[in-house]
C-alpha cells in the first residue's frame, strides 16, 4: 500500500466525519496550546528577569555581617556555637584590596533615617560611603557635584528623593535634617548633588530613593561604627565565584569568631533563573494532563471507528490488505489527527502569547524548541492512543468482519 493511499484514506475519513474529528481533536488542540503558551510565558518572564540582572554588574560580590553557626572540628553543626555578626572596618577594606582577583572595594554603612524637609518627614535609606572608590556612582550625577572625601555634612540624593518625595522639590543647596529613629540623634545636611534616574533591582534595591553621604558624615545622626555592607568587584564575571572564595578565605583570617556572608550577583541570577525553569516545566507538566485526557478521548473515538468500519476492514482484507496494512491505516489516521490538532493548537498559542505579551508589555516570542515540544507531544499522544485500536482492527478476521451488519 502506497503512502499516498494511506494519507488519502485518512483524509477521507476525517472529511466524512467532521463533527467526530473536531470533538476528538479538541483535547489535543487545548493540550498543545496550553503547553506552548506556558513554556513561552516562562521563557518571556525568565528573559525579563535575565535582562534585569544583565543591567547589573555580574562581577560584583556582596559581603554582609551575619549571625552564623560555627563549623567546629568536633561535634555536630547543631552543637556548634553561634557566631556574632562581623564588624567590618577600614582594616577589612585594606585586606580586600590586596586579595587576589579583587579590583574594587566599596564599603558602605546602610542606615534608615527620618528625613525632614520643611514640615514633612519621610523614612528613607541613607548610605555612608567612601567617595573616592565610588566611581560608578559618581558618574550618575545629574545636577551639582558628587561627594568628596572632605565632605561631612553634605549629601547626594536620588532622583525620586529630589523630585516627588517631598512637596517642595529638593535642589542643590537645599537643607534637610536626618534623624535616627532608634536614638533620636539628628543633624542637618546640605544637598550638593542630585543623581540621574537609574534602574534598580531586587538585589541592589532602588538607588533613586537613597541618600548618600560620607562614612564620616553619617556619624552626625547614627552611632554606627562599622560597615554593614561591602561591595567588591572582581576582574570579570567569570572570575566572580573564585574571587568570592578568595574574599571569604581572607576575611576568615580576621574574623575567626565572627559571622559574615559572601554572595555574588551572578549566583542570584542563576538561582532565580533555575526557579523560573522549575516553575515553567511544572506548569507545562500540568498542562500536559489535558493531552492525556485528549489521548483517551481519541482512543475511545478510534475504538468506535473500528466498530463502525468492521465490515469495511473485512472487505479490505478480503481483497488483499495485510494485517500490517490495516494497522498502518489506523495508526496513520490517529497520528495525522495529532499533527493537525497540534498545528491548530500552535496557532492559538501564537495568538494568546501575543495578546499576553502586549498586555504586560513584554516580548513573548514562541521559540522553535517550544514549537517542537508542542507538536511532538501532540503527535506522540495521538499515536500512542491509536496503537490499541489499530491492533484491534488488524486482528479482525475477514470472514467474521464481512458477516457484521
Strand content: 15-25%
Number of helices: 11
Q: Spans with pLDDT under 50 lasting ≥5 residues?
A: none
Q: What's the end-to-end separation, in Å?
A: 27 Å
Q: Label the overall shape.
A: elongated
Helical residue percent band: 40-55%
Reading the helices and strands in chain order gives HHEEEHEEHEEHEEEEHEHHHHH
Compact summary:
The protein is α+β, with helices and mostly antiparallel strands and 405 residues long.
Q: Can you describe this structure?
A:
The protein is of the alpha+beta class and 405 residues long. It folds into two domains: 3-53 and 270-403, no CATH class; 107-230, no CATH class. 51% of the residues lie in helices and 20% in strands. The chain has eleven helices and twelve strands. It has a six-stranded mixed β-barrel. Strand 8 (175-179) and strand 9 (186-195) form a beta hairpin. It is elongated, with a radius of gyration of 34 Å. The two termini are 27 Å apart. The model has no long low-confidence stretch (mean pLDDT 82).
Question: Can you tag this structure with a few keywords?
Answer:
elongated, 12 strands, alpha+beta, 2 domains, 405 residues, single chain, six-stranded mixed β-barrel, 11 helices
Write the layout of secondary structure elements.
Layout (H helix, E strand, L loop, with lengths): L2 H14 L1 H37 L5 E6 L2 E2 L12 E4 L4 H8 L4 E16 L2 E10 L5 H4 L2 E4 L9 E4 L1 H4 L12 E5 L6 E10 L14 E5 L14 E6 L5 H15 L3 E7 H44 L1 H9 L4 H38 L7 H27 L3 H6 L2
Parallel strand pairs: 3-12, 5-10, 7-9
Antiparallel strand pairs: 1-11, 1-12, 2-3, 4-5, 4-8, 4-11, 6-9, 7-10, 8-9
Helix pairs in contact: 1-9, 2-7, 2-9, 2-10, 7-10, 9-10
Amino acid at each position: 500500500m502506497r503512502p499516498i493511499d494511506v494519507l488519502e484514506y485518512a483524509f477521507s475519513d476525517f472529511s466524512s466525519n467532521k463533527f467526530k474529528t473536531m470533538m476528538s481533536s479538541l483535547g489535543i488542540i487545548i493540550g498543545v496550546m496550553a503547553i506552548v503558551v506556558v513554556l513561552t510565558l516562562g521563557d518571556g518572564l525568565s528573559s525579563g528577569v535575565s535582562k534585569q540582572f544583565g543591567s547589573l554588574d555580574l562581577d560584583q560580590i556582596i559581603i554582609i555581617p551575619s549571625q552564623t553557626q560555627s563549623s567546629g572540628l568536633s561535634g555536630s553543626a547543631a552543637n556548634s556555637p553561634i557566631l556574632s555578626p562581623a564588624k567590618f572596618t577600614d582594616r577589612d577594606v585594606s585586606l580586600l584590596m590586596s586579595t587576589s582577583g579583587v579590583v574594587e572595594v566599596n564599603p558602605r554603612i546602610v542606615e534608615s533615617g527620618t528625613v525632614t524637609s520643611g514640615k514633612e518627614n519621610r523614612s528613607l535609606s541613607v548610605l555612608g560611603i567612601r567617595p573616592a572608590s565610588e566611581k560608578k556612582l559618581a558618574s550618575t550625577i545629574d545636577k551639582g557635584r558628587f561627594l568628596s572625601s572632605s565632605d561631612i555634612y553634605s549629601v547626594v540624593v536620588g532622583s525620586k528623593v529630589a523630585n516627588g518625595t517631598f512637596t517642595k522639590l529638593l535642589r542643590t543647596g537645599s537643607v534637610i535634617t536626618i534623624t535616627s529613629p532608634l536614638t533620636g540623634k539628628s543633624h542637618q545636611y546640605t544637598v550638593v548633588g542630585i543623581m540621574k534616574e537609574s534602574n534598580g533591582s531586587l538585589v541592589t534595591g532602588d538607588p533613586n530613593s537613597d541618600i548618600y553621604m560620607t562614612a564620616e558624615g553619617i556619624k552626625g545622626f547614627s552611632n554606627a561604627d562599622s560597615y554593614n555592607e561591602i561591595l567588591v568587584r572582581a576582574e570579570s564575571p567569570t572570575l566572580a565565584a573564585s574571587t568570592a572564595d578568595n574574599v571569604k578565605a581572607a576575611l576568615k583570617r580576621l574574623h575567626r569568631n565572627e559571622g559574615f556572608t559572601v554572595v555574588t550577583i551572578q549566583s542570584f541570577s542563576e538561582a532565580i533563573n533555575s526557579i523560573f525553569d522549575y516553575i515553567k516545566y511544572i506548569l507545562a507538566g500540568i498542562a500536559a494532563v489535558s493531552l492525556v485526557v485528549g489521548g483517551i478521548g481519541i482512543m475511545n473515538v478510534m475504538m468506535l471507528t473500528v466498530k463502525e468500519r468492521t465490515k469495511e476492514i473485512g472487505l479490505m482484507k478480503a481483497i488483499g490488505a495485510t494485517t500490517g496494512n490495516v494497522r498502518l491505516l489506523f495508526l496513520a489516521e490517529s497520528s495525522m489527527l495529532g499533527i493537525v490538532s497540534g498545528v491548530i493548537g500552535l496557532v492559538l498559542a501564537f495568538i494568546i502569547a501575543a495578546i499576553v505579551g502586549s498586555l504586560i508589555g513584554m516580548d513573548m516570542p514562541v521559540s522553535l524548541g517550544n514549537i517542537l515540544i508542542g507538536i511532538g507531544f501532540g503527535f506522540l499522544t495521538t499515536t500512542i492512543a491509536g496503537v490499541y485500536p489499530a491492533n484491534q482492527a488488524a486482528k479482525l478476521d475477514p470472514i467474521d468482519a464481512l458477516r457484521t451488519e
